[in-house]
C-alpha cells in the first residue's frame, strides 16, 4: 500500500498496468543469453553438416536438419564461422562494409553464431545495421483492414482510404471463416480503388488461403508461421518441409509469400525448452530462408507483450528484425499487435524500426479503430494517423504513409463502397444498399453500419468460393458498371500475377504501379548521401498536413489602426515629481494594438494607470524605441523615473516591474506569461509599482501559470516579437501623452 | 520460349514474350480482351516458364533458396488446385506413412515431372521417420 501521493499517482499510470517479470530461463522467459543457449559451432564433412551449434547430427531435431541441409551456405560457412562475432557486429555498423558482404557472411552463420553477433550490439548500432541491411531501399508500411460486422462496404471503404494513405500492403482476416472470400474481395476492390498495385491478403487457415489465392482474390500470404523448436512446430501442425511445400504452392499460383515468426511464441506454446527467445528466433529465420520464403513477418507480432514483460525485450525484438535482414529476408517488422498501455512506450518502441526504416515498418497498422481489428491488435490505429504523420514530418522520415484531406478520404471511400456495391449487384450477391454505401463513407466503425442479413451473406459466400466466379468476373462486373479505373487496376494485378515480378524479395508496387523490390530497388546504403533519400516531392507530401497553416496571418488580430488616444510628445526627460514610469515597446499602440491575449493596448494602459492612481501616484508613459526586449524597456524606464520604479511592457503584453540600480536582467516582479495576463492583473501590477515607489510593503502579484501557453502560442509570440523588433529605431525614448482620466 | 536471360522487371522487359499458364501472351491480356469476354482464369495464372525465369532472377541476385522455391513452384503449376492442397496436407506432421510419402514423391517425379518437389518430399519422409513424425 503506497502512502506517498506521488507514488499513488505513479501506480495509476498506464505504464503500471503492464506486467513486468524477472527472467525465468527454464520456462523460456528470457529474451537472450539463456544458460541453455548453445555456443556457435559448425562441423562439415564431405559437404554435409555433421554438427550444428554443439549438437551432433544424430541428435538433430527437425529444425536442425532443415537448417543444416537448406539454411546455411556451406561454401561461406568456414569463413563466416571463423570470423569473430565482434568483427561481424562491427561490420554491421561500418558504413564502408556494404550490405552484400554481410549477406554473404551471414549466410554461412549458424543460429548461435547469429545470436553471438547481436551480443555485441546496442540498439543504436542495431538500428544502423537495420538501415543498411533492409532489402528494399524504399521503406513502406502495411495496414490491417477488418471490422467486427465484416461489412463489405466498410471493408472496401477502409481499404481504399488505407491505400490512399500510402500503405503498400493491406491485410484482412475474418471473425467467421466463411466470410473469407467476401472480405478478401472487399479489400481487393477497395484497395485497387484507392491505389492500383496495393498487395492484399486474407489471413485464414492455409487451405482456405490457397483457395482464395487461386481465385485471384489475394496476392500475398504471410500466414506461414514457423517456430523455433520441434514441439512448437509440430503443435502448429507443420514441419519445415510442409511449409516449404506450401510456399512453393503459393508461388505456383503467383502469390508472394512471407513467413511469420517472432520472439515469445515458443514460450507461449510451452515448448521453449529453456532456450532464449532470440536464439529460437534465429533458428526460425534460417528455416524461413532455407524454405525459400522471400521474407518474414517478425518482431514478436502477436506475442509482443511477452518479450516486453522481460528485461531487454524491446531490444531483442529489434535484434530479430536485424537478423532477418542479415539473412536477405524482407522484413515486416511488427509494431502491429497491441504492445502496451502506455503511449510513450508504444511510440518509443516504434522508433527502433521507424528511424532505420524497414520493408514494412508495421506489419499491420490498424487502418480502422482498434475495436474493429479482428487481428486482436491495433498498436497504432486510425485514431493515430495524424500522430504517425507528424512523426514523419518531425524527423523528415518516410514511414510509408502520408496525410490526406477529409475530402480526399470521403471521395475515395465513396468510390470504393460504390464499386463493391456494383460488384455485389453484378455477381448476384445480397445487395449493398445506397444507405450502406453512405454509412460506410462516414462511419467510424461497425456501430455506424446498417445490419446485414448474416445468413444470406454467408450462404452467398459459401456459393461463391467453389464457383467459377473469380477475379476476372469481378473485372468484367466493374467494367460493365462503369468503374473503368478500378477494373483496370484489378486487371493489372492479374497481369502482374502472370509476370511474377512481385514474387521477388521485398516487392511492392509504387504509386505508378511499377514493381519495387530488392532486385530493382536494392538498398545501397553505405553512409551519408547513399541509400534511401526522400525526393523533394515526397518530402513536400509528408510536410503537408491538413492542419498546417500559413503563419503569415497569425497576428492579424494584433494589428489595426493606431490608438488615437496615444500621442508622441518629444524626447523623454528624467522625472522630478514622485512618479512611476510606464515604458512601452516600440510597436505599442501603433504597429501593434493588442496583446497576445487580445487586450487593447489602450485598455491595458488604463488598467495600469488606474492601479497606480489608486495608490495616489502619478504616472508617465514613455515609448522606448531602441530595443524590443522587455527587461531593457523596464530598465530604461527605471533610469528616467524619479522614484526609480518603472513598469516595462512589450506590445505582446509581457511585463516587468523594474527598479533603478538593479541589473538589467534583474527585476522586482516579472510577468513572462503574457497570455495569462488580464486587465485585473495589469491593474494589480500598477498598484504594486506604485507601492514600491512609495516604499510600502508589497505582496507580489499572483501569477497564473499555464504550462500549455508557450506550446500553444509560441509561433504567435515569435511573430509578435519579430514585429516589435522591426519597429526598433535608433532614437531616444519619447514622452507619450495618453488621453485618459482615472475613474476612481 | 527462352526465359533464361530476361531483364527484371519481366512485366516491362518481356511483355511480348511472357505467357500466362494458358499460353496467352501478357501483351494480349488487356482491358479490351477482358471486355470482349476472351479471357479465362488461366490467363491470370503464372506459367512454369515465367517462374523459372523469376528463379533465375533470384539466383543471380544472390537468393539461391528463393530460386529453389520458385523452381518448385514452376513444377507445381502442373498440379491441380485440389491436388496441391492434398499434397500439402499429406506433408503435415503425423498424416502419412513412409510408404505414402514415397508414393507422393513418385507421383510428383513421374506424373507431374516435378523432381525438386519429389526430392523435398523424399527428404521429409526420411526425417519424419527419424523424428517419429509419420502416421502412427
Overview of this protein structure:
- The complex is a heterodimer of chains A (744) and B (136).
- By secondary structure, chain A is an alpha/beta fold.
- Chain A has 28 helices and 20 strands.
- In chain A, helix 8 packs across helix 19 and helix 25 runs parallel beside helix 27 (679-694).
- Chain A has a seven-stranded mixed sheet, with helices on both faces.
- In chain A, a hairpin with a 5-residue loop joins strand 17 (645-649) and strand 18.
- Chain B is built from seven helices and no strands.
- Chain B starts with 9 loop residues before the first helix and ends in a 6-residue tail after the last helix.
- In chain B, helix 3 packs antiparallel against helix 4 and helix 6 runs antiparallel to helix 7.
- The longest helix of chain B has 16 residues, at 115-130.
- With 136 residues, chain B is mainly α.
- Chains A and B meet through helix 2, helix 5, helix 10, helix 11 and helix 12 of A and helix 1, helix 2, helix 3, helix 4 and helix 5 of B.
Key words describing this protein structure:
heterodimer; A: alpha/beta; TIM Barrel; Rossmann fold; 3 domains; 7-stranded mixed beta sheet; B: 136 residues; mainly alpha; 2 domains; elongated
Please sum up the structure shown.
The complex is a heterodimer of chains A (744) and B (136). Chain A has 744 residues and is α/β, with parallel strands linked by helices. Chain A is built from 28 helices and 20 strands.
Overall form of chain A? elongated
Structural class of chain B: mainly alpha
Task: Tally the beta strands of chain A.
Answer: 20
Question: Mind describing the biggest β-sheet of chain B?
Answer: none
